[in-house]
Amino acid sequence: MADLSLLQDSQEDTDGLLDFVSQDEMLTPLGRLDKYISSENIFNRQMVARSLLDTLRAVSEDEHECVSVLERIDRLAEDSEPTVRAELMEQIPHIAIFCQEHRPSIPFAFSKYLLPIVVRYLSDQNNLVRKTSQAALLVLLEQELMERGDVESLVCPVLVDLTAPDSSDDVKTEAMAIICKMAPMVGKDVTERLFLPRFCEMCCDCRMFHVRKVCAANFGDMCSVVGGEATEELLLPRFFQLCSDNVWGVRKACAECFMSVSSASSPEVRRSRLSSLFISLISDPSRWVRQAAFQSLGQFISTFAGRSSNSGQFFRDEWSGTQTHRSSADADGVCPAQDSVDVAEEGGGEQTAEVLSTDESCCTDSDSQKCLPEQTQPSSHPPAQEIPEHELFNSFQYWRTPVPRIDPELELELEEVRRPSAPALDRKQLQELIENLEPHIDDPDVKAQVDVLTAALRATALDSGLEEAFLEPRAARSNPFSSQQPSEHLSADIQRRGSSLHLTCDDDDSDVSDSSLSAEDQQKSKQQDVVPQALLEQYLSMTDPSRAQTVDMEIARHCAFSLPGVALTLGRQNWHCLRDTYETLASDMQWKVRRTLAFSIHELALILGDQLTAAHLVPIFNSFLKDLDEVRIGVLKHLYDFLKLLHQDTRRKYLYQLQEFLVTDNSRNWRFRSELAEQLVLLLELYSAQDVHDYLRPLALCLCSDRVSSVRWTSYRLVSEIIRKLSSCSSLLVSFLGELVEKFCHSQKWSGRQAFAFVCQLSIEEECLSLEQFSEHLLPPLLQLASDPVPNVRVLLAKTLRQTLLEREYFVSSVNGQQEALEHTLISLQTDVDKDVKYFASVHPSSTRLNEDAMSTTSSTY
């Protein structure tokens, strides 16, 4: 009886539920909305919010009912339950898009009904509702659903008021974050008038470091919006304060956005002020700040690229009269140094206040003539003296790098310019700082600071040595091995100290000379004037094993990642500064470091040019070819991009090594072989038809028999491109086509015979060979596949005949001798026992294309 009564109760509940559902179905969309919008059940009101868009679509044809739904949305926005309000706010962007699509019928729907809800929820007391409204606001701005006037008059003032001092900490932080995200969307004018003053004020908020951290994290975006003038006048002083904040998280955020701030600043400010500030972050007491600074170091150095890396890219080669790439940075020491900036006053730290004072030099407009190519300057100095006959074959004269001539009057002017900048006081201060820190050298953080100061001291000493070279008597600079003018000896001394004429040095001799240099001379060879020397020294130190212990275990990988950008900034004339670092990274024990270099070696080769690439990158490239698969894949993905930059003779040597890519650490790594097939397609244009036939053809045929179908289908395209390449040589083409017939058309495996049909289809579709050659060598064996016992082969044959051959006028005209055989084969396929073969032989489906047809059979040929 109990079971019976339970069954009766269950039946009654089911009947009530059915009555409930039937009653809802009888209601209109607006009736259901009115029924549940005032329900005491929170879940019902949430469901109302979720179904608002469906309700609007149901009544979209009636303008009056659409307005009624929007009015009920305004009523639902007053709900006391936060989850209902949050659910409503999630639907606002979708409803706004609907209103935009139906704008003619409800033109003011968004600005009158929806926007006020978004603005009101921005200051809601519930955290979930506020965050949902902020996300909805960003979506509305990205989709351009808000009028610019509404944003400026309604949204921006509310956000600025939320950052007032009397606002709560959470609200202030959230409002500042949304302001920073909105700045790129609203533009420069609105940002400068409404957001910039409050942003500068929040950067100095002494009570809440969370607000300062948000400002620091978004500082670069704000600088890029307002432009260089406002950045240098208003934002940079705040940025200096944030970089010296007592909270390490704020300083870390500054280090992460340093590149964006530098990009928005002028070259003078970047060199004179930001470089010193960045050095202070590199020597920060906090390991996390130093880690972020080193990760951004390469990016910051890349911002120095610009006019200095593009101007004066050619200089005259005195040996041949031809022009060679060169940067204006070759005139090391020619440009006057700028005044140093005391960063301690700006909040950048006392230890690095004057580190870069001697390194920060750049070419002004008045000095630009000095950095111009030699051939463009007026020649006012007397002609060079003739070299005595007995000195013509002197080894120094014969093998030395040509040096530019410098006007003696220019030399005197340089002495006057450089003489006042002797930085004796700066070296003394740095030595005192190092002595004070040495008792605490056991602390890793202190040791890192000592390393930074030592590098700065070394750079200062090198600069003073360069000045002494300018100030030393001319008699002391005389060379017993030549009779050149003193100005030429001065140029040779500048060149010996690391000038950019390193490009024309013979590679073998440069290796010998490098090995014979002392430690001091090797340090001097790292000198350049494109970026502050202290920054380059810190970048080169990223390969130091001690950095991995005191800063970041992944610091070498960050160095490798940014090295192409640094090389582009310095220019190929300063490659000698990075060469040792690159070789160190290429032999790093971590395969991730080598993998990073492998993926970017083609970009570096493009920067350095063919001569430096052949001398310094090719050996490293060869070592990567024998590395782990994780490293080799980086080389393989850009194999064509690298080899096309090499000389033809060097490039041809790699024909013997391409077969090594067929061997992998893991035989299941089929994507490696698929990438090889794709690269071989590109490599065909780099080699002659004979080389393609002798070396690339066997690789292609080997890949065509791969176990994985995806590799085989890519290889079939490679075969068709080889046919195109060999079409210029009839003997090679006939030999290759005969080999295809033997290996594929007469193959014992049905997949090989199917591959032959697909290669024939590709050859015609891509016009890889003439129709006459196809009819003579490929069409007869292709038609023999009509009697193949495997239906998949006959299906692809039917597609090839119907969709490819019969689309050409040549095969349907009486001129072609194969027309009768072609028609006979097609009739036999139309009467085939397999329905798929009969279908593709009878009709030409308009929706079926070559790629779709090919891949449709891939799954069955794995």
- Mean pLDDT, to the nearest integer, reads 76
Q: Describe the sheet with the most strands.
A: 2 strands, antiparallel
Given helix and strand content, the structural type is mainly alpha
Helix count equals 47
- Distance, first to last CA: 64 Å
For the largest beta sheet, what order do the strands appear in spatially?
Answer: 1-2
Return the CATH class of the domain at 165-294.
Mainly Alpha
Subunit structure: Serine/threonine-protein phosphatase 4 (PP4) occurs in different assemblies of the catalytic and one or more regulatory subunits. Component of the PP4 complex PPP4C-PPP4R1. Interacts with HDAC3.
Domain Phosphatase 2A Regulatory Subunit A helical: 49-302
Pfam family, one: VPS15-like_hel
GO cellular component, one term: cytoplasm
Describe this structure in words.
Helix 18 packs across helix 28 (533-540). Strand 1 and strand 2 form a beta hairpin. Among the domains are: 26-146, Alpha Horseshoe (Leucine-rich Repeat Variant); 165-294, Leucine-rich Repeat Variant (Alpha Horseshoe). The chain is built from 47 helices and two strands. It has a two-stranded antiparallel sheet. By secondary structure, it is mainly alpha-helical. Residues 315-335, 356-386, 475-529 are annotated as: Disordered. Residues 49-302 form the Phosphatase 2A Regulatory Subunit A helical domain.
